[in-house]
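Limitations
The structure tokens in this dataset are predictions for the assembled complex, not deposited experimental models. Users should treat interface geometry with appropriate caution, especially where small molecules or nucleic acid strands are included. An illustrative entry is reproduced here so readers can see what is and is not provided.
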Amino acid sequence: MKKSLNTIAIAIALLLTLSYTFAQSPKGKYGTFALTNATVYTVTKGILTNGTVIIRNGKIEAVGTNITIPSGAEVIDCKGQFIYPGMIDSGTRLGLVEVSSDPRTTDFNEVGDIVPQMKALTAVNPNSALIPVTRVSGVTTVIASPEGSMFPGTAALINLHGYTPDQMYAGFEGVVLNFPNTGRRGFWDRRTDDEIKKATDKAMEKLNDVWEKATQYHKLDSATNGKGVGYYPELQALLPVLRGKQTLLIEANASKDITAALKWIKEKKIKRVVLTGVLEGWRVADEIAKAGVPVIAGPVQAVPSREYDRYDRAYANPGLLRKAGVIVALQTGQAENVRNLPYHAAYAAAYGMGQEEALKAVTIVPAEIFGLADKLGSIEVGKSATLFICDGDPFETKTNIKQVFIDGWQIPMVSRQTQLYDEFLQRDPGVNKVKQ
Amino acid sequence: MKLKIFFLLLCCTWLGAQAQSLTGNVLIKNGTVLTVTKGTLENTDVLVKDGKITQIGKNFVAPAGYKVIDASGMHVMPGIIDAHSHIALSVVNEATQPNTGQVFVGDALDPLDVSIYRALAGGCTTSHAMHGSANAIGGQCETIKHRYGTVDADALRMEGAPRTIKFALGENPTRVHGSGNGIVPRTRMGVEHVIRQSFAEGKEYMEKWDEYKAATKVKGFRGAPPVYDYRLETMADILRGNIIIHCHSYRADEIYMLLNVCKDFGVKKLVFQHVNEGFKVAPELAQFGAMASVFADWWAYKFEVYYSTAYNAAILHKNGVVTSINSDSEELIRHLYHEAAKTQKYGGLTDDEALAMITINPAKQLGIENRVGSIEVGKEADIAIFKGHPLSSYTIPMLTIVDGVVRFDREKDADDQRIYVDPKGNNDNATFHKYYHNHENCLEGAEQTMVKLFGFN
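Predicted assembly:
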């Protein structure tokens, strides 16, 4: 009897362990899901109360209040909860770096000043520990961007789920240009004003030289139908930008650099272009609006760039740009804490942008900027099922993200950080190895 | 030259108008008062006389000459305390030896640092201006009040606050000294050795002086005193319990090491800083009585913080460790209320528990909990007033009061808050920080070594 009791106890223990392991499985799940009784923030079509969202074949199949649940669908009751489209961080280094101070784990800064042919998508590590940490926060999609030199490479929009870069690719790539910069890059940047000016002038010369070469290359290539030119990968990478087929992402932060960049864009007649960073965009917001160039602003939680600027300029920048009529998406510019995107958005909202516009700036606006408004950025029929369920306003710090879906995959709500919590909240053994 | 004098005069005039007194009389009317230690009081008044909270209640009438602040619809909380910061310092690291306990950042206070104002604009009234983490035993630190407007460095000091000293374990001291200078410590073994040796020397020194002092009491004593050494004297003061250790640390093993070293030398006043893996040895920290001051969610900016979790603060707190959330950054110090709110997302702490992380808990870690860190009668009137609950991400700090003096007022303050303007300075000079680099503030001053070793890290 005692023995059989023991056996039962062991069986139960085993079962518990198994179910525990299952619950903690880091694997995603694909299928048909019905999310019912939710308040749905569609972003583009208002707010539905008691709404249902059907996910099938990776897409949003139906959205509404009177929806028939398909047979075999897994029903997730979202009573008292909310559904939002997955948040998009329009500028990060996520996937390209694991430990930022260790060069062996950083892959965003290739050697060379003009290397637009370097593709971020190639170097995205789908198994980075930073990715699950990010996606359980409701940030589902990010721009992974190379950085460093003048043309550091080509950035890519990725979804934060998949085992190869191609599985993660979300349909947009853009060439990055760090516009010649008159600002300092941190406390360690001890160059004199003269040195900075010389460096900027030289960089401007180089940029124009590169562009001239690319233009010549474009003409030759067009004239010969691509046959009469040799192998120039840098110039080849710039061709789609020259031809208006690919977006140029121009990083410019100081106001006069933004002005110079706008002038340069006009001069070179660049068709598809976005300004990124734009920390001092508020100073020249009208100019940017007039040029009709959209911006990816941020980080929002940042100190002002000048000692004499009002303390909240970085918080207020997106709102001021928006008020001037600029199209604004947001970025954190980070890797390990891309999860804080909703808080950058909250600060933008509180300091003038308003909640509705701030929400758009991390959903539909970037989707439009990247030419993916038919796939991402809102809860609409036919779009990718990239969304999340939460128990409150996702910009509020204490709100919990309950479930994330990416491309119709139900994402396990675990990361190394939650696993460490589970293991260490009540560590066993505690202080003494032998239980007292 | 003339221009210089003009600016100096301009500054003096401005200061004369702004900061005549270091304490003030204020009546804060009708706010939602988050006392932190004694619950939340609706529609409540707080009366401040000579920089101290004298009464908390309802329907007070302001005595003549008192400034009256209408806090209707606003939240009134204790001024935020940052247990780890480097603002208001003109230097951070004396990165020349593994033990520089003889130096004191209080000798390098910079009251003109506009970061002090920006911290005030985030409700932060007190910070722990720390030495950097280049050395296993760094310099002594200074607890300051954000009395921005003064040009007198001494006026920043929180008079009577206990002495503190910076220690540092792990990558920073081993990189600077072992890899950089080719001397011990190059490893975590070396770090332990440096600290044990320093304590042992301090003990010897203390005993020599104790013997000498005892001997002088004997009639007819004619011996000479031992040679005075301020570094050893500082070590002795740590052993005597006169200085609180604030130790930069990340990994569980190094934290555990310092607990053991301190046990061996009878040192009890110990606060771990950053302590990203503190959660792994939370029961040991609690048993020792050591405290922890952590980031809300920073991690992976270097290898020793790769195995971190944003649940660190919650795990430490729930295991009984007095825990605070710090900034170590001129950026984060402006929204510590938001950083504290992250303990609600990561671990479900209550409002009072979360607010304690940036008020009474850091006060305990600095030994100033009887003076600041909560809204209680008798405490110093360091108060922050918010539109919206301070733990909401939409909240906006409106007014910040230090010792009864309003030092920040969102409605009235001008854009440019510099106290000193360099007439030769270039107004077109902008700096664009990348915040993932900025969490190495602790190594400021040791850049030459870092540049040599790692490029611009």
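Some entries come with short summary sentences. For this one: The longest helix of chain A spans residues 193-223.
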